[in-house]
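Need a sequence for this fold. Nothing fancy.
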């Protein structure tokens, strides 16, 4: 009799673990940003000479730091700053002394640059 109780208890335990594992797999896990895309975006940043006006981690011009930009702006806003900076500047209470020019980049380069900038959280 004790062996049957132990077997039934074991089956409940195993089935409970299976259900718990199934419940965890149903919860979507965050997908890390694509490291290759971020690295490609850093290359676009360098190729476009963005550091002539912007600084990241103490490197580049002090005109406009981009440290923490990914925590402050959405990817859509970052993209708008690249494509249509005049529209973004118009939203600011204090206007910048130096205007940013609009950039026309290939879609892949633009997406990579946005991914890179969005990854800069601090």
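Here you go.
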């Amino acid at each position: 009799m004790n062996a049957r109780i132990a077997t039934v208890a074991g089956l409940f335990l195993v089935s409970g673990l299976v259900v718990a594992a199934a419940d965890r797999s149903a919860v979507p896990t965050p997908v890390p940003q694509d490291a290759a895309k971020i690295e490609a975006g850093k290359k676009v940043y360098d190729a476009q000479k963005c550091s002539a006006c912007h600084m990241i981690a103490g490197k580049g011009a002090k005109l406009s730091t981009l440290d923490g930009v990914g925590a402050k702006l959405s990817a859509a806003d970052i993209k708008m700053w690249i494509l249509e900076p005049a529209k973004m500047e118009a939203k600011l209470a204090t206007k910048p002394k130096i205007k940013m020019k609009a950039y026309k980049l290939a879609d892949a380069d633009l997406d990579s640059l946005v991914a890179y900038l969005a990854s800069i959280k601090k």
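For context: The beta strands are 54-56, 59-60, 64-65.
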